[in-house]
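Researcher: Here's a chain I'd like modeled. Treat it as a single chain, no partners, no ligands.
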Amino acid sequence: MTRRSSPRISRRALLALAAAAASVVGIGGLAACGGASAGTGGPVVTSSTVGSAAATAVPSAARTTNSSVAATPRAPQGAAVTLRYAMYTSDPWPAILKQQFDGFTAQHPNIKVELTTDVLQATYQKLETEWLAGDPFDMCGMSPGYLVLFADRGYLLALDPYIARDKFDVGQYYTEPMNDGRYKPGTLTPGAGTSYAMPASNVGTIVYYNKTLFQKDDVPEPTAAWTWDAMLQAAQKLTHANATTPQWGINGAAAGTNNINAFLYSAGGDFMNPDRTAGALESTPDQTAMNWLEDFVVKYHAQPNNAEKKNIKNGFANGNWAMEVGGSWNLDVYVGLVKEFEWDIVPVPIGPAGANSRWTYAASDMLSIFSKIKHPDESWELLQYQMGPDGMKLFTQTGTPALKSVAESDLFMPPDGKPAHRKLILDIPNYSKNVYRLPGTNYWIRNLGPAIAPLWEGAIDVRTAGKLGDDAINQGLAQAKGIASATGSSTSSR
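Model: Modeled as a single isolated chain. Structure tokens:
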């Protein structure tokens, strides 16, 4: 492959680039399908905590939200084209993408797709480096933690002109997952604006429970109307931590940000204040939720501590705990793993703010095309294939496919499929919030989990945890604003 020359950048813009890069430490995000925090004992395929991408301001020429398709010469009919595609190593994604590429190439014999995989942080560092070097990848699997970062820096192709040109029917897809890929550059808050990514699948936080253990301990099974009190009481009754083979009532409640946010929301709180200008973990609703979650581990010992679950792998599938607060991306993982007992799923419980305030975490795994590439039309054709029925059928393995007809088909929702209440996951977008729609999330989320983690071990009190958490959020938000300002300064200098 011939390498293209680097884009020309003014000296003033280069100085802004260097200043921005020097100012950033620890920018990070999470994959939508990797919300389980380290040490939860869930399937090893679901853990994807990330590090930092190089922080760089981008010249204004890079930013594009054009209303029409750019006049990039298309390869001659039948000419050989190679598309470069990057994806972080989160099973089963690489295998799924290869199957999609085989199907696409069968329809487009002249287009070859090369897949590059690496751990999440390294993948996005490479994507940024290659774009700045003038030899960008054509496409990638887009983590919600990097969408704002890459859109603000002009790395991503605006998809709306292609949607309009080809009359691509976005109404076929669930609304909120489609909105996850929309963003207005400079706002730090996705959810509306230009389409920079398309959703592959949507995932969210639910509660898995072991029906067999509930029946054995004579504990009523949870229902959609269950409450915080019901969850706590069940967890206590199902805990036999001192038994020869210890059993805990629950795991994943006091855990990573994608788990605790469901409880912050149902207490009437959130990570940030209503104005989205500062952290809110010191607020009364958040303190209530965090104190309640801490009690599972510290007061009642109904959730194992880190030392106790250190050597436990696939704890729910192996019956080490009766309930697991976890991601819907594990649904079919457990269908494959769990053979020794009956199990089901239930929504997160109703909190003190009432039934109308039940919310959970949700986000989308997405697909993006890069700007300044040689083959945008061919890349768009591949994206359309991935978003079509053939491509979406494979995304049933990564979460709820964004295409309604596939998500609601017998393939994903077989009449006799497991678990019994499988259809509950289709409702997740209707009572969920995406933490990545808060400003600067990708800058603060990586540091938030470690900041409050000592609370779950009883090492700090809830007030201290709230302050440390707010400090992490506020520092990340200030960092995000600083980088956005630096990017704006460099763009205005040209």
